[in-house]
Specification:
alpha/beta, Lyase, Ornithine Decarboxylase, Chain A, domain 1, TIM Barrel, eight-stranded parallel barrel, binds pyridoxal-5'-phosphate
Length: about 450
């Protein structure tokens, strides 16, 4: 006989949401499918937790961004920011759409090449580029953006070794009104350091400066910051062209546009807080057209990451346990935690249920499976009484999770893609113990009697 679980009674004031003309608010966030494929079916086929990406949304999102800029400026190129999401399937779709690759490490450089990207179509950024990878990138003709003075020296050594002049860009940083200012990367503009870098390159004679790169930060909500960035980049480019015999062929303005995600502590929804992509495109392109000389259209490169991919990813999870904490808070343990969802530290996600549930909604805590106090996906989300085995669908999770996830305490989950014609395909297998132990070595002397 099935007996109901006894729960000790408590008295707790429930905040069930604001009253509207129909009465009190009811939690109604139900998602039964992703792009037409049933959540239940996906979890049955590939297990839970499961990351799910939508090809349709990804292509749509890319095209929207690309069109916003290319409708306003004639020479636009997108470099897909690998660190935002470097799953082969995601990168391939974006390369099919016309994006080149933007990488920030030797590993990412190799991953892009392995996928079939020609080195000429790789933008190589980052503060730590090994000598070996610099040599490879220089031979390939990649777009290398120099981060510091040591790298100028390194590339000069590579140029001497290869006996050729190498085209390079420099990364600059600047004040665009964004706080905190990202000043750790590249050469500072206002202090004169960026000009010193150009002088240094010119003096060395082994490198040809052909581009400027800048990335002002991430989740930037101010289109006007980009207008400032672009204006300063154009002015600096002309200053370089006037003083040195270089032609600046590209202005790479980095990434940083916000996605329609909700930052923790921000009360208003993303639809209200996050400016439309057209506002950013207008700020960038209008400033470019106003500041550039007639008939001068250097390539405008964008390395947009999260604004393209974030809303195209979901995480299907399963309710594993239901608790009542001593202070009366309802808490749930689900099968995915901060190990899989790195972005939960700063986002308050949408949490949807796979079915209708009756009962009064109350502020509930969602915890992951880790035996760690910090494993909290949401401190307080208004939910009706969930049942064990139910699925919760968390979104948007497409950016910076399937790259920053941790193999900690448990395995990393599988990832699948729903194709444009509604077919679900695995794009990354769930890890198992072999993936983890195959890297380990147990020296003979540490073996023990069993
Ligand atoms: C150099 C560079 N380009 C592009 C990006 C992508 O940024 P976002 O995802 O904010 O668009 C980053 C992220 O930090 C970056 O450092």
């Amino acid at each position: 006989m099935n007996s109901e679980i006894y729960e000790k009674p408590i008295i707790k004031k429930l905040q069930t949401g604001f009253m509207n003309k129909f009465g009190t608010g009811v939690f109604k966030h139900i998602r039964r499918d992703i792009d037409g494929v049933a959540v239940e079916e996906l979890a049955e086929q590939y297990g839970s937790p499961l990351f799910v990406f939508s090809e349709k949304e990804l292509r749509k999102s890319y095209r929207k961004l690309y069109n916003s800029f290319s409708n306003r400026y004639p020479n636009v190129l997108f470099g897909w920011s690998y660190k935002t999401n470097y799953l082969d399937a995601i990168c391939s779709i974006l390369h099919q759409e016309g994006a080149i690759a933007e990488v920030v490490s030797e590993f990412e450089y190799k991953k892009a090449k392995r996928l079939g990207i020609n080195g000429r179509n790789i933008i190589y950024n980052g503060p730590f580029k090994s000598m070996q990878s610099l040599e490879e990138a220089a031979e390939d003709g990649a777009m290398i953006n120099i981060d510091h003075f040591e790298e100028i020296q390194d590339l000069e050594d590579v140029a001497k070794k290869l006996n050729k002049k190498i085209k390079v860009g420099i990364r600059i940083n600047m004040d665009t009104g964004i706080v905190p200012q990202w000043s750790r990367f590249g050469f500072n503009l206002e202090s004169g350091q960026a000009l010193d870098a150009v002088k240094r390159i010119s003096y060395g004679g082994h490198l040809i400066l052909s581009g400027l790169h800048c990335h002002i930060g991430t989740f930037i909500l101010e289109p006007s910051a980009y207008a400032q960035e672009v204006k300063k980049m154009v002015d600096f480019a002309y200053k370089i062209e006037d003083k040195f015999s270089y032609k600046i062929e590209y202005l790479d303005i980095g990434g940083g546009f916000p996605s329609k995600n909700r930052l923790k502590g921000v009360y208003l929804p993303p639809e209200v807080v996050v400016p439309a992509i057209d506002e950013f495109a207008e700020a960038v392109c209008d400033t470019l057209l106003e500041s550039l000389k007639p008939n001068d259209f250097p390539k405008l490169i964008l390395e947009t990451g999260r604004a393209i991919v974030d809303t195209t990813g979901y995480l299907i999870t399963t309710v594993h346990a239901i608790k009542r904490l001593p202070d009366g808070t309802r808490a749930y343990v689900i099968d995915a935690g901060v190990n899989s969802l790195f972005t939960s530290f700063w986002y308050k996600f949408n949490i949807e249920m796979d079915r209708e549930v009756s009962g009064t909604a109350e502020p509930s805590m969602i915890n992951g499976p880790l035996c760690m106090n910090i494993d909290v996906i949401d401190e307080s989300v208004n939910l009706p009484p969930l049942e064990r085995g139910m699925k919760l669908i968390i979104s948007p999770v497409g950016a910076y999770n399937v790259t920053q996830w941790m193999q900690f305490i448990t395995y990393r989950p599988a990832v699948c893609m729903i194709s444009e014609d509604g077919e679900a395909q695995l794009i990354r297998k769930k890890e198992d113990i072999n993936n983890i132990i195959e890297q380990e070595i147990l020296p003979e002397r540490y073996k023990f009697d069993k």
